[in-house]
Amino acid sequence: MSTKQKFGAGIWHFATYVDRYATDGYGPPRSLIEMIDLAGQVNDLTVVDINYPFSDPTLTLDEVEAALKRNKLSVIGITPEIYNRQFAKGAFTNPDPGVRKLANELINKAADVVRRFGASYVKLWPGQDGWDYPFQVDHQELWKASVDGVGQLASENPDLKFVIEYKPREPRVHMSYDGVARTLLGIEKIGLPNVGILLDFGHALYGGESPADAAQLAIDYGRLFGMDVNDNFRSWDDDLIAGSVHPIELFEFFYTLRKNNWEGVWQLDQFPFRENAVAAANSAIDFLKQVERGLDKLDFEAMRAAQKKHDAVTALKLAQEALYSSH
Amino acid sequence: MSTKQKFGAGIWHFATYVDRYATDGYGPPRSLIEMIDLAGQVNDLTVVDINYPFSDPTLTLDEVEAALKRNKLSVIGITPEIYNRQFAKGAFTNPDPGVRKLANELINKAADVVRRFGASYVKLWPGQDGWDYPFQVDHQELWKASVDGVGQLASENPDLKFVIEYKPREPRVHMSYDGVARTLLGIEKIGLPNVGILLDFGHALYGGESPADAAQLAIDYGRLFGMDVNDNFRSWDDDLIAGSVHPIELFEFFYTLRKNNWEGVWQLDQFPFRENAVAAANSAIDFLKQVERGLDKLDFEAMRAAQKKHDAVTALKLAQEALYSSH
Amino acid sequence: MSTKQKFGAGIWHFATYVDRYATDGYGPPRSLIEMIDLAGQVNDLTVVDINYPFSDPTLTLDEVEAALKRNKLSVIGITPEIYNRQFAKGAFTNPDPGVRKLANELINKAADVVRRFGASYVKLWPGQDGWDYPFQVDHQELWKASVDGVGQLASENPDLKFVIEYKPREPRVHMSYDGVARTLLGIEKIGLPNVGILLDFGHALYGGESPADAAQLAIDYGRLFGMDVNDNFRSWDDDLIAGSVHPIELFEFFYTLRKNNWEGVWQLDQFPFRENAVAAANSAIDFLKQVERGLDKLDFEAMRAAQKKHDAVTALKLAQEALYSSH
Amino acid sequence: MSTKQKFGAGIWHFATYVDRYATDGYGPPRSLIEMIDLAGQVNDLTVVDINYPFSDPTLTLDEVEAALKRNKLSVIGITPEIYNRQFAKGAFTNPDPGVRKLANELINKAADVVRRFGASYVKLWPGQDGWDYPFQVDHQELWKASVDGVGQLASENPDLKFVIEYKPREPRVHMSYDGVARTLLGIEKIGLPNVGILLDFGHALYGGESPADAAQLAIDYGRLFGMDVNDNFRSWDDDLIAGSVHPIELFEFFYTLRKNNWEGVWQLDQFPFRENAVAAANSAIDFLKQVERGLDKLDFEAMRAAQKKHDAVTALKLAQEALYSSH
User: Fold this and answer.
1) Does C299 map to a domain?
2) Which of A200, C44, D158, D287 would you label with C90, given CA atoms 20 to 30 Å apart?
3) D308 within a domain of the structure (yes/no)
4) CA dihedral sign of residues D251, D256, D261, D265
5) The pTM is what?
């Protein structure tokens, strides 16, 4: 029996974006307060993840808190911006030790914001940590720096959780935390209880993983601390509306969470470059609710029996019936 | 016997970049004049492709011309910016007819700049023309608009060449001019002599084409009007240094041009996000010169004989010997 | 209002398979007659595509016809085996002119079987025509041979249709008829009315095409002569059960056919390596019926209006509602 | 200063192959003795990996030994055939416990052959262990069975080494030992000293790994027990001639081995479907010798200095100079 599910989103879902071509952006810049007010318009959205530092340096935490409050939103995580110009050659793995130190300091400040908002974790997304070319880096040193950088933060902040959001690539051509297994290897090496994974459905998908399998593995290591969803065409992190391309695998992903009694916020990590942000979020959450009802309907015993035999035809039939009839 | 090869580059090779994460850019913005001065520092670079309109609206054509002159550079093409905010939902295929008209007007202005600089062509790179989602567009109308938009320009400017630079995707999740064969279908439908292809080696590579085969096909239709090179890992348009990952296929690409007596500028389309732009260009051109010497050494008759038998082992041996011994 | 849809399958759906590892096969070999008897057990399957020559050389056409008759099956196409040992280096493009002649003769014999069974077409799937290595072939000659080989057959048999089933690769590392646009270029070059495309949904998907867009393009050239469906993970021709991974894009594919009033058999091209063949076919056809009902329910006018605006969110909602509520 | 390198090959390099289309094979079947005699014709090939059981059940170990001896070949590993019909639904993960037991027994027999030939390891390539469809398996149980199956063998045979050759997929749509990090997680879980990795360059490449990074990681865990090379186009295990497509990354791979003083046989895992097997092996070994000379020439200190700064342009230049000048 399912309890009422909580839904969340990265606050950047409500931003406008630039890319290397549309350098003037896909829309006029939005302030954090405007983004929060948009998030407040989404049905059943109650939780957000916020980037830090704020693009407007004069904006105070109190102002942000007030905006959140009037939109009935709470903060689940803080994402320090360790992937902008300063960190273009890496945060934890930057060849310049001074920059590595800056990254540590910035993340420690973000940790304080986590405490201030009573959030659940600092989210680490080291998108610039990795390499572009063959022969560019010493892979031993690079990986060691990736692991040590996170380990140091976790030791410095034993009261807080750190979650690593792995991704195969972008902006770096190859990210060092590139997949679930590699990230778990790093976390095991760190050996601290307060480091886990934030599993992005789309990152798993386009990294060639089965998102359900990735979730199970992270759970089996006791390290699935958070997750978010979106969709893509398996070759890039398109951050499309959840359910728009791969509804069956999304259902299997949530089936895996439910089966393991994993409780947590179902978050969105979408980039609606050309869509209305509120409409895109509502579209995803509508489908997530269908998924939730589908899980309530799904015959878990029959599914287990089919999986016991690796019986794909029966398993698929059970999944289709439960998901589609829950529209 | 090879004549002295001319080398060129898109002027954006010397820009700094932003992306959706490093929104503050990978370096301080550079003016077009600064970019031209950097291009002037590259060994043996004599030709550039320039974006239009200039980001600084006060910059005059005379000023640009003076900067080019003092750097001994000439202009091969003008690339109108039909992929920024205004055209986020497409230039030729925008759902808003007013925006389609704006695109036409902008490109016509770019055509005048081509005339002013005595350049060879207007380059069309419709990176926002396409779709993101299943069911988003009527594919018949979208493709018709893609073809008609280019056809209209070609009729309006019979004295000029228009080249289409196809690419599978980015920024649009799927571009309508996505590959060499689709683009040739469009060009044949247009039926005018002044529309051709600018073949980007990396776009072919990551679209699953053999760049050599794509070049041959475009040549066989009399439509290979230009080309540029770079490198990537076959799953994205990384715009890395030419020769850094796929030297053999680059060599086969130029072998195909030489075999067909295709004469033209060997251009670079690289985005050195984290590298020194001049060093990255020199690195590529050094390898291109090795390629040129390799072609001088290659036994074309023996290669033809091996290919006649589809003898991959012998063909590879001939290619390796010619290329590697030309270092 | 939809008429009762006809369903079909390649008869190899009911075979057992070998691959380069399981050289002893995924099950004991099955005779063509056994396959036909299995096909007869599938609900609502009425049409099959048959390979030629039969693996048992003593089997007569009369025996096959009798087996078909008792299973209430008719023949839609004949697929000559131009991809086995003899043709390992190509059928139309084989470096040996004697082998090219053999291919032509074999296909002409297959044409007679088409006539004998009153089938709709000879299906050409030139899976060995292409290349494996850089520098292996002269791309101009290879493509010319690909086109000429099909053209000759079409001239020799003006009373019959020939359909080309393109695919990016496998078994050849790169097939010459690799995508919809390339195949249309070839067909236009041939210039005969009796050559068309058999569009395999999975081949489009894993070639990076939108299957709906590919279908529309083939229709716009008057060349969509047949189609079949299955599913995969976009990186290989997995030939999984239709609807098991990409239900939305499958729905868009059939939406495109319906919108264009394309009438024809909905065929399966699945390889149930480890599944019960009848169950796998029933699973797919059950989903195809859901698709058919979904099309009956879909608000085509509202969809057109959304697509006119490139409104992905609304279009997705319409598609989801129609498809899921038709379970 | 490099010592004389030893070269090896999987004996299947000298087989003929079947696939799901060319079911009559790419050539007449070859006996193991014929394969060994072909291997003996390759320049500088001294070591082979042999499948077990032999396809001819009457062939004795003494006969094989004699054939090896007259060709001056020794055995590095034995590869039990845990991927044919019997194991089509998995060896270690088969839903049928009886089949899992058969797999264990077969591999134990292969272990005896390793002892008999004084070979270095049993090679485990569980190509059928995994899944095809969403929802098909319980991922927790599947992974546990994968790990337990190998662990049991390692406990039963503490005197022998077992190497796992991971691969993303094929023949299974997704293999459970799919990449270097996942395999290391499994090996760490097993916790025995006699289980390691056989790293296939092409598997790393097409799994989206950097082969050099994968090798470094395996070395850092003390688990790189073997390796083999080939080439592909990054989207499938094409098993092409080593060096034919990705010479730079192959060089980086061997650079990583040399830097770590990893000593071992450089093996080939190629499938020359349409090529002369001896010529294909010679072509690869010729290039590997160039790689070896290139490593002798490479300025390791300068490379380290460039990598310290993540200086891709300098690192690439050093690599190109050393490799190309060693032709």
Assistant:
1) no
2) D287
3) no
4) negative
5) 0.98
